[in-house]
Amino acid sequence: MLPFNTSAFSNLLGASDRAAQRKAVVAPFDEFDAKAEDVMQHIAQFTQRCEETGIIEDFNFIESERSPPSDLDMSDPLDKATWLSDPRRFVHGNILLDSSKADMSKIQAARDTIRSNLKKFSSPPDPVKMPLASKQLVSFQNRQWIYVLLMAVWSANMKTIMLRYQELHDQDGVVLWYCFLQHFAGTTVENLIEAYSQLSDTKIQLTLFQDNVLNFTNAIRIPIRRLIKAKEAPSFQHFLTVFHGCMEASNEEFRAFIIALYADYRAGGPTKSLTMLELLDKLDGEYNRINNLGRWVKREDPQVLALTATISTLQSQLSTLKGQYGSLQALVAKTPLPTGPTTPAPTITKLQKPPPRKPTDPEIIEFQGLTWKWCDKCFNGTWNRTHITNEHVAGIGKRNRRRPPPSNETNNNNNNPTPQANIAQVPPPDDASPTVQANVATSSSTLDFI
Questions:
Q1: What are the DSSP E strand ranges found in 26-152?
Q2: Is residue 77 domain-resident?
Q3: Is it the case that residue 213 has pLDDT exceeding 80?
Q4: Residue predicted with more confidence, 331 or 4
Q5: Could you say which of 141, 197, 243, 389 would form a disulfide bridge with 376 (CB–CB 3.0 to 4.6 Å)?
Q6: Given 3-state DSSP classes, what are the helix, strand and coil percentages for the chain, each rounded to the nearest 5?
Q7: Is the predicted pLDDT of residue 440 greater than 50, yes or no?
Q8: Which residues are CB-contacts of 45 (< 8 A; sequence separation ≥ 6)?
């Protein structure tokens, strides 16, 4: 394959150490006969062998390429050559650790890179002068040894199964191991248990798929193919579950077809020889035939009929309301609008108080055309229109604000036309001073107590 003998141990180790490593790699362990229940154990044994012999890095592949750092000028040939040989250039994955991000093209690219670089040499590269090429030669030898190991631990049945991947791996052990992982993906014991759970009678019901036979059969094919891939076969109970799941079809013609198939299966007729996939194809064919003829009629559900009638009634009522609303709009459009003068809405102007009083300011000032008085006892000091600090009477403001509105009877018996007149009739307390009486009179006349 290469223009020189690859069995010569040209590497960074001594020849005797390299020979001992080869012997450790290719030593057989437990035989694998392609049984699904043994897949996880076989993977664990193989991974442990690679770790013990130090060949984990041979399973690396390029996951992605990083952008060159900003301090390198890629137009400079020296910087470009430096970056192309920089080990930080690529993000590497490893199929022994995680094969989910790998694909066949990436695994084959790693193999082909090593082979194409080594074909440039007519003799093994010197490990001192050409360390990178020497490491690639070591990896090339390791890949051969991995291939020898797999051929030693795989049974004849397993080798026959893997013959289909011969063109993909080309006797490269790393690529062959990736083919193995892809072939048995989803066939571990855990995945098989999950596949069987998808075939339970609670999940295989045509009603769960809204009576769509194609969706029903496609959902069954997924776990069935997983079982077939793992050399497992659907059981007699699985066939019964599929038949029973279809017997609840809403279409009478399809239901009669299923019952006839089921009877033939139980009697050992031609249906008994069908595989599960063939049975599902047969169900699809009958469904398509009935549907193409326009005879896939569902049974009417009484609740659906009642709901349909209710919706029709509501739609009729909505149409009536729309007609009445249209008539009302037309009537409003014909009614002339009043042309007389309109009374403007009253505007309420909030009085603005003077700025806070300074110690040197008088207690009575003129502000914006109004007289304002300062009281230290009201709200810890504020301007008002009625009294100064010495004239303050505790509670009088609360009584004024909490005075209940006059009753209807009082209004009927009161001849005063204005609220000011009513307020003026309220006598002051007997014990009020003349100053308080004057304050009450002032508030009655101005109605602007703050």
A1: 60-65, 90-94
A2: no
A3: yes
A4: 331
A5: 389
A6: 55, 5, 40
A7: no
A8: 29, 30
